[in-house]
Amino acid sequence: MSMGMPPERASALPYRVLAGVEPTWGGWLVAPGNLQGVTLAPQPAFILPTLEDVLDYRPSFTVIALHSPVGTTEKPGDERRCDVAARELLGPGRASALVPAPSRLLLEATSFEEAQSIEPSLDIVRWRSLPKAAESIRVVQSWRQRFVWEVSPELAFLQMNDALPLRYGHRTQHGRQERIALIETKLPGSEWVLRARPAHMRESKLIDALADLWTARRILARAITRLSDPPVWDDEGVRIDIVC
Predict the structure, then answer these.
(1) CA 42, 45, 49: angle at the middle one, nearest 5?
(2) pLDDT (tens digit, 9 = 90+) per residue, 15-65?
(3) First vs last C-alpha separation in the chain
(4) How far apart are CA 135 and CA 227, in angstroms?
(5) Which helix (H) or strand (E) segment is 56 a member of?
(6) Domain-by-domain residue ranges, the chain?
């Protein structure tokens, strides 16, 4: 598919810095990697308090693969095309791993009760994730889509696994082992990043962030699939898309 890739952000470094980014407790988990030639070297992960901090980080990231909604619908019940396509790719066994983007109306709710009146199927776990979704939808405006791309770690693992959905959920021990094996094979150097994980950083989030980093390299190589084709934009002019 045609990428229409924008020009890269300038860097004085002899390599380009990529990042996989996950929402997490206390902020945003960043898994950076230095790309020199064809070699991507994962670097120690860290947490920044806001998404603005990630986007303004220096040295600048050439590509940020962000696992959080970018662009959304106005009303509940109007699904994003890319969310539907992602579930179809993952298949019935893994489709539930992809959380649909909230509507703007849902994001305006000030209590769980109000949110449930807007979307009756909403549970408390998803309710607690809405502030991070609201942050990414607010911060990633169209001009930032030159270097910020919405991704899904579960779709990254699908690609790593030769387009076959994984057998186990990421919260299970088998699922953890399955994902680590893929990451360490497809992203050499990630094993020491996992071993050096700080105690306050959830391992499952770091595994997902490394999968996002792997997708960031695919983005730079123009080797991705865009799930909204033909393109779709929201009412704010932001392109609604997931890439993998």
Answers:
(1) 145
(2) 899 999 999 999 999 999 999 999 999 999 999 999 999 999 999 999 999
(3) 12
(4) 22
(5) none
(6) 1-244
